[in-house]
Design brief:
Number of strands: 7
CATH class: Alpha Beta
CATH topology: Rossmann fold
CATH architecture: 3-Layer(aba) Sandwich
Order of helices and strands: EHEHEEHEEEH
Number of domains: 1
Strand order of the largest sheet: 1-7-6-2-5-4-3
Structural class: alpha/beta
Shape: globular
Radius of gyration: 14 Å
Largest sheet: 7 strands, mixed
Number of helices: 4
């Protein structure tokens, strides 16, 4: 599924629709160059979920945790851009983040190849002038359900 997002407001609108159909346990990979809007998309999801605090790229921290008021799940936002070896993820206890009460958004997932679980969804953002093209691909039944729900 492809969508053209002319500006950050359109990104936030689609992210809010995405959030409405999120379910605990999902793993979402975010692909795209620096500045493509990966963090802006996650910020849109978090705002739609009612999170009002600061949302920044976890480039230096590797992961940011967002506990939501409804308590259904915790969102973990990873940025693996600065990772030099996938084994570093093992040292930080990466497997503890993935479970039935979490949703994990992972930027630069190729840097964690061989350690990360498979994605339910792959979101690829590409710059097109001032806007972005977002391509969403589902790899699991849970991912397909989410994409079908968004498309209705």
């Amino acid at each position: 599924m492809k969508r053209f997002l002319p500006d950050e407001a359109a990104t936030a609108t689609l992210a809010a629709r995405f959030q409405a159909f999120l379910s605990a346990g999902l793993v979402v990979f975010l692909h795209g160059p620096l500045g493509a809007g990966k963090t802006a998309f996650v910020r849109g999801v978090l705002r739609a979920a009612g999170y009002a605090g600061a949302v920044k790229s976890p480039t230096y921290t590797l992961v940011e945790e967002y506990r939501l008021n409804d308590g259904d799940y915790t969102i973990f936002h990873f940025d693996l851009y600065r990772l030099t070896d996938p084994e570093e993820l093992e040292f930080m206890g990466i497997r503890d983040y993935f479970g039935p009460r979490s949703v994990c958004f992972i930027e630069w997932p190729e840097r964690g190849a061989g350690v990360l679980p498979p994605a339910d969804l792959d979101l690829t953002l590409a710059m097109q002038g001032p806007g972005r093209e977002l391509r969403m691909t589902a790899s699991t039944p849970a991912g397909r359900v989410l994409l079908q729900s968004i498309d209705k």
